[in-house]
Design goal:
alpha/beta
Length: about 325
């Protein structure tokens, strides 16, 4: 479903939504919308944080996860804006994929102002990887191949053209002094499909996130050339150099966080920010981070709202620089 179709689907709901919203929290338990199918990063964010919220006794009842795929999060965003205003029992998983689409106008007339940004509780980082049988053993090897014949190197990722996985590669090309327009990118329906295509030699390079390659790194079925982090990370990516230390000034932080509907009283929004702060700093969450390969990051409340708005501005400028926006 396209973003436009998603917006049209909810176009008639706005008036009814206002009268049906929740003014405060109740005993229904909390709903967390993952704007994608089960198994992805947004789904993991909802389920993991929901589990810890319950374990810490920070909510009544349970966190019920609702998967709402469609148009890269546009369907869920439109649903929340149009139908759930003021609902104090609703969280929605988000990441830079959300802010990137807002920056590129993929959510139609909706902007970052139409929801409440609550907080981020973990971080992931972009990675670039190849088949273990590939002749490219370092990022420099790959860049040299691109310089020699950029049309012969095909990259795949789990996002659409212009999405996160594509943007990471364009930013890398820009940092390497290559023309981003020469980079061949093939979108797949998720990182798993893209990695399968790479291992089958249908594409040569995989662009994704660190958590996506955890199992493959541990099994030795993928070779990660670089991590797009400010410094080396621990866990399954320990020992893998960053792009920056290899001479390419590229960083791609994938925060894992949440927004809520607009219309929440400030006191309830602040309460949610405090809960997420408690989750992010708990020993239970630290164990879950280790299990899933996520890195520490806790940013909530006003600081997170500022981060989101800076990121939207940065992504809009970057998208124009890379020719993805007029």
């Amino acid at each position: 479903m396209t973003a436009r179709a998603a917006l049209l689907l909810v176009a008639g709901w706005v008036t009814a939504a206002v009268s049906g919203c929740q003014a405060g929290e109740d005993r229904r338990g909390v709903e967390c919308i993952a704007p994608a199918n089960a198994g992805g990063g947004w789904d993991l964010t909802c389920r993991s944080a929901g589990r810890v919220l319950g374990e810490l006794g920070l909510i009544r009842g349970i966190v019920r996860v609702s998967n709402m795929p469609g148009a890269g999060g546009a369907l869920a965003y439109a649903h929340v804006v149009a139908r759930r205003a003021g609902d104090a029992n609703l969280l929605v998983a988000a990441s830079p994929a959300t802010t990137l689409r807002i920056a590129q106008g993929q959510y139609g007339r909706f902007s970052a102002d139409d929801v409440r940004w609550l907080g981020a509780v973990a971080a992931d980082y972009g990675v670039i990887a190849v088949n273990p049988a590939s002749p490219w053993r370092t990022l420099d090897d790959l860049i040299r191949a691109w310089r020699a014949d950029p049309r012969r190197v095909v990259v795949g990722g789990g996002s659409a053209v212009g999405g996160q996985d594509h943007m990471k590669i364009l930013v890398l090309a820009q940092a390497a002094g290559l023309d981003p327009r020469t980079i061949r990118y093939v979108p797949f329906d998720g990182g798993g499909e893209a990695m399968t295509a790479m291992l089958g030699n249908f594409i040569q390079v995989f662009s994704g996130d660190g958590t996506e390659v955890r199992g493959q790194v541990q099994d030795g079925t993928i070779r990660v050339l670089a991590v797009f982090a400010p410094e080396r990370v621990q866990g399954h990516l320990g020992g893998i150099p960053t792009a920056r230390e290899q001479g390419y000034d590229v960083e791609w932080l994938v925060w894992r966080g949440f927004y809520a509907p607009a219309g929440l009283p400030d006191s309830i929004a602040a309460r949610w920010a405090d809960r997420l702060e408690a989750v992010g700093r708990s020993s239970q969450w630290a164990r879950l981070r280790t299990e899933t390969g996520l890195a520490p990051l806790v940013v909530t409340g006003a600081a997170f709202d500022s981060l989101v708005r800076r990121q939207v501005t940065t992504f809009e400028r970057l998208s124009r620089d890379l020719g993805l926006l007029p």
